[in-house]
Write a structure and sequence with these properties.
Helix content: 25-40%
Radius of gyration: 28 Å
Largest sheet: 7 strands, mixed
Distance between the termini: 50 Å
Structural class: alpha/beta
Strand order of the largest sheet: 6-5-17-16-15-7-8
CATH class of the largest domain: Alpha Beta
CATH architecture of the largest domain: 3-Layer(aba) Sandwich
Number of strands: 32
Number of helices: 25
């Protein structure tokens, strides 16, 4: 490792200015060999036991035998036309329906393309405030989840397929018995719910069983956000931001530019509007982060820092801002860059934002509220509303209470409505063992898959996908979207509102009737039919957005709880592509490269270059992590820009009952997660095992040989001042005449000639374009083995380039789609003419 470090240090002086991997920066022989090859080693070799000649013989015989079937006269088949053709259904012409996709309770408004009653593609709802036409990777990939054959397809009891009538018969008795006890033995565990209809149903159910309890838990929760608001305001609030009016943004470990952050789609658009040097003052982004992220890559100034040190940094920062001094004085040294951030914030009162990541402690969130208020940002760039969550409780504490009640023998009927707590509950709660104890006498699990939790419940009820059910949900601003189905349930499943209605004795109620009835109560005027149709057409219920509320920091004397521990720190983060594990069986998301590491099909133990050199670690080394007596093993990935003495692991892998795609991929990081330290833990021990595990990363693949960037710079950048002097600094040179073998097409004779430009100032590396392309063109998933060989089939990619010190480099995203070359080589070699050039300069594919 020391030799590699020496190579990298030398390469920093003479190597490429922009680089994609540490191997490229070091210029080691293996990378140089791969660079000279068209494909990675092994991709172009014939490695099958059958020879090429043998393969051709077998295929020739197969074709000959297959041709003989052409001599057989097939029976006549009757084509039955529509007796009454559905309204507006024309074969080949798409129809679009407004609905929503939810993640952690937050609705992402979408338009879904449908062909002959089958949903085929997701687009953003360009009329909705929360979308304006954009989507994220999870909404795009939801189509594949809906068609997943591994989804639960029936009601199951003790491993046997049963009917809904049998389920009703099994729970009717316990429910009737609980009525006399006011539901004292009933517990309902749900994920985060923002649906007004579903929340109203559960509250009405609790009126029938007033002693029953509603618990909420999902692993990627916002408990720290909730507690930070309570610390600052004495009540839970939803914080909303207007990045279009922010001149300075300070991101405190907040990856708000990547999918999953509430309001992310709108925030990306607003942030990008201020990255155009030609339309006004550009914004400036400062990012302090504990692990490299897409937001940090877009920062003008990025500062890597251990997660536990960020609280100390926030305290040091607060001592220079117009808020009450923190208790206990300033901890530690004041980093040099803190002064620059303070001056920027003070110079942009009312036009700045301080935003904090969900995993940071409550005190850091309270600090941000106090700073935004002191700077006059509230009401201008920062707004507060009622919570979107219908039951805003501390979710880990709620799950703890449920576990205590089960262990105390207080639970007779446990209903788990969504989620997978057996897999993703904190390890110290031993939720699986609690269920195995049998102290919760009757356990019913409702979910999309027969997963780890359904295995330990007597009954499992198959759920509908959102694209095949009726419902509603709130976006980050509180606006309600009506969720309407694009197709009838594929497996005769029940929607959440239908399932809860069944518990209330309405076994035959339909989702449509339930949602419509709820909104008929909310809109009691005589024009309900017009209101209902408009809400379905537009994709949201007008007038349901939460109004800003006036709150003030009650106690900005923040109680800091930082430590000065120098032990190795563990960052536990949600995965950028499969989230908390609920998307494990989605092949599109498994094969989607993660924004910074470009890893696919796995999670890794991420460490920084300094720590790797000190511990003699190399990428793909298997290490054992131990924390609080729990041990896991995973492969190392050395990530440029990762803070020293810190390890990052991501959740969602190591599944045992995910499906054919997700089962067995990666390692289970939940085993190191505790209820007291769900995101940041100290004292983790790391040991090499001496074994190697292959990681499929596309980061070093498809590299281009441009020594020192002199032949053709891979990345072109300049400062704002230099751009104003020379706006055409990145203009492409004219191709010399006679350089190509192909005859030049005379576009001058045509009326139109199309071109494409990608604004790299605005690109945030969200990877949504990759998923949208895969969905639109139905591009195949090839799996980890083929990805390792460089055979991944994405038609476009988003490269991540680095510049500067490997411990804290600048990063750049560069999308590489089909270029629609004027002299496209793919057109000439295509044996069937499937690719051709249009008269308007486009590379058409038939």
């Amino acid at each position: 490792m020391n030799a590699v470090r020496a190579e990298i240090d030398e390469a920093a002086k003479t190597g490429p200015e922009y680089w994609r991997s540490l191997e490229e920066l070091a210029g080691n022989p293996e990378f140089q060999e791969a660079l000279k090859r068209e494909f990675p080693k092994g991709a172009s070799e014939w490695i099958d036991t059958v020879s090429r000649r043998g393969f051709l013989k077998v295929m020739g015989a197969s074709l000959g035998l297959a041709g003989m079937t052409g001599c057989v006269k097939l029976p006549n088949e009757v084509i039955v036309p529509y007796v009454r053709q559905p309204e507006n259904v024309i074969p080949g012409r798409a129809m679009y329906y407004a609905t929503a996709h939810t993640l952690s309770g937050y609705a992402n408004p979408i338009l879904v393309e449908s062909h002959l009653g089958r949903p085929t593609k997701v687009e953003g709802n360009d009329k909705h405030y929360a979308s304006l036409g954009g989507t994220d990777i999870f909404a795009q990939a939801s189509i594949l989840t809906m068609y997943d054959p591994d989804r639960s397809q029936s009601v199951v009891s003790m491993g046997d397929q049963r009917s809904y009538a049998a389920l009703l018969s099994a729970i009717r008795g316990p429910l009737q018995a609980q009525k006399a006890l006011q539901g004292v033995g009933i517990r309902i565990l749900t994920t985060t719910i923002s649906s007004p209809t579903l929340a109203d149903q559960i509250r009405n159910l609790l009126k029938v069983y007033p002693q029953a309890k509603w618990h909420v838990y999902e692993p990627v929760n916002r408990d720290n956000v909730l507690e930070g608001a309570k610390m600052a305001f004495g009540q839970p609030v939803e914080t909303r931001y207007d990045f279009s009016k922010a001149d300075v943004v300070v991101s405190v470990d907040a990856d708000f530019l990547y999918a999953g952050w509430p309001g992310n789609v709108r925030y990306i658009r607003d942030f990008a509007l201020r990255r155009d040097p030609d339309i006004g003052q550009m914004n400036r982004l400062y990012a302090i982060e504990s692990t490299p992220s897409a937001t940090g890559a877009k920062a003008d100034h990025r500062f890597p820092m251990r997660a536990s040190e960020i609280e100390k940094f926030a305290q040091a920062l607060s001592s220079h801002l117009p808020i009450k001094p923190p208790s206990g004085g300033v901890a530690g040294d004041n980093p040099g860059f803190a002064g620059s951030i303070v001056q920027e914030l003070l110079g942009h009162r009312g036009s700045s934002i301080v935003i904090v990541g969900d995993h940071q402690p409550a005190s850091v969130h309270a600090f941000a509220h106090a700073v935004n208020q002191a700077l006059g940002n509230v009401g201008k760039t920062v707004f507060y509303t009622d919570p979107v969550d219908a039951n805003p409780v501390n979710q880990i504490e709620s799950l703890k209470d449920l576990v205590n009640d089960i262990q105390g023998g207080k639970v007779d009927l446990l209903i788990i409505l969504g989620g997978n707590p057996v897999y993703d509950a904190p390890a110290d709660l031993n939720f699986a063992e609690v269920l195995k104890s049998g102290k919760a006498q009757l356990r019913v699990h409702y979910g999309l898959y027969q997963d780890e939790t359904s295995e330990l419940c007597q009954w499992h009820v198959n759920a509908t996908h959102e694209l095949e059910s009726w419902g509603d949900a709130r976006a980050f601003d509180g606006t309600v979207s009506i969720i309407q189905p694009l197709i009838a349930p594929l497996y005769n499943a029940k929607s959440p509102v239908e399932f809860v209605a069944m518990l209330s004795g309405q076994a035959d109620a339909t989702g449509y009737d339930l949602v419509r009835a709820y909104w008929q109560k909310q809109h009691s005027r005589g024009d309900f039919e017009q209101f209902w149709r408009k809400s379905l057409h537009d994709g949201w219920v007008e007038g349901t957005a939460y109004q800003s509320k006036s709150v003030a920091v009650q106690n900005d004397h923040i109680g800091w709880k930082f430590t000065t521990d120098t032990a190795i720190e563990l960052n536990i983060r949600r995965d950028p592509t499969i989230w908390d594990g609920q998307f494990s069986n989605n092949g599109w998301l498994q094969e989607l490269p993660k924004p910074m590491s470009k890893l696919t099909w796995d999670n890794a133990v991420q460490v920084g270059p300094k720590m790797a050199a000190r511990l003699h670690l190399a990428s793909k080394d298997i290490v054992e992590l131990e924390l609080n007596g729990k041990k896991i093993q995973g492969a190392v990935w050395i990530q440029a820009g990762h803070p020293d003495n810190s390890i990052t692991v991501t959740l969602g892998y190591g599944r045992k009952r995910a499906g054919r795609v997700g089962t067995g991929q990666g390692y289970d990081a939940y085993q190191l997660r505790s209820s007291t330290a769900p995101w940041i833990a100290s004292g983790v021990q790391i040991r090499k095992t001496g074994e190697i595990y292959e990681l499929a990363s596309t980061q070093g693949m498809q590299s281009m040989d441009t020594p020192d960037g002199e032949q053709r710079p891979l990345v072109r950048e300049t400062s704002l001042n230099e751009y104003k002097k020379e706006p055409g600094f990145a203009k492409e040179e004219e191709v010399p005449q006679g350089l190509t073998l192909y005859p030049r097409y005379e576009y001058e004779k045509e009326q139109y000639a199309w071109g494409m430009a990608i604004d790299l100032n605005r690109c945030t590396g969200c990877n949504n374009c990759i998923l949208a392309c895969q969905s639109e063109n139905n591009i195949a998933v090839v799996g980890k083995e083929q990805t390792l060989l460089g055979r991944h089939m994405h038609w476009l990619r988003v490269d991540a380039y680095y510049q500067g010190d490997r411990d804290s480099p600048k990063a750049f995203f560069q999308p590489v789609p089909c270029m629609h070359c004027e002299d496209a080589p793919c057109e000439v070699v295509c044996p069937v003419g499937a690719t051709s050039h249009s008269s308007e300069g486009l590379n058409d594919m038939i």
